[in-house]
Write a structure and sequence with these properties.
- It holds the Pfam family Aldolase_II.
- This protein is 35% helix and 15% strand.
- It has 207 residues and is of the alpha+beta class.
- The relative contact order is 0.15.
- The chain is built from six helices and eight strands, in the order αββββαβαβαββαα.
Length: 207
């Protein structure tokens, strides 16, 4: 978890202490602490969260613990949740714009678009509710005037998707500087979603 948190900053996905990261464990989840520089983190700084909102450890949990708890509780296929204030996702989120079907790779987030959840104060139950709704049938979303969320089966998957979503946000932002991008229709996005079910799978070696 600490290595992934540091990669968030090193990759430019996050700045300072603004993001947070969780990973499912038995009877709860591990969460990065609030307000701590990732470069200084030690394993004992990670916070063990329980599903009832209680926590163990010497540090206070991230203020966004409710989002992590609610997503992990509702999505059994998800093993890790990443939240970042990445530059281009946050730029679009401040315009309260999601990412539409301007490129087929938008389907990497699970559907034909990447939604932008309505605004609510950080750390609140209301924000968590908005995030859960925006992620219905999706693996990533933007948070209005705030940032982005990405989920994966594990930390590597969540990080990979977050990088992809930030790249798409950058492409979309750049395209908007010229005009309104031409969008792919729902039928094409459905075809791409179907093709992605087997994308990148190598055949088993013979013999």
């Amino acid at each position: 978890m600490i290595a992934t948190a540091r990669r968030m900053n090193a990759s430019g996905l996050n700045q300072g202490t603004s993001g947070n990261l969780s990973q499912r464990v038995e009877d709860g989840f591990l969460l990065t602490p609030t307000g701590m520089d990732y470069d200084t983190l030690e394993p004992e700084d990670l916070v063990l969260m329980r599903w009832d909102g209680s926590h163990e450890g010497k540090r206070a949990p991230s203020s966004e613990w409710r989002i992590h708890r609610d997503l992990l509780a509702r999505r059994p296929e998800v093993g890790a949740v990443l939240h970042a204030h990445s530059m281009f996702c946050t730029t679009l989120a401040c315009l309260r714009r999601g990412i539409p079907s301007f490129h087929y790779m938008v389907t990497s987030a699970g559907g034909e678009d990447i939604r932008c959840a309505p605004y609510a104060t950080f750390g609140t139950e209301e924000l968590s509710h908005h995030a859960v709704e925006a992620l219905e049938g999706r693996k990533a979303c933007l948070l209005a005037n705030h940032g982005m969320l990405a989920m994966g089966k594990n930390l590597a998957g969540a990080f990979k998707l977050a990088v992809e979503v930030e790249t798409l946000a950058a492409m979309y932002w750049r395209a908007l500087q010229v005009g309104e991008p031409v969008l792919l229709d729902a039928a094409e996005m459905a075809r791409v979603i179907e093709k992605f079910k087997t994308y990148g799978q190598q055949p088993e070696p013979k013999g």
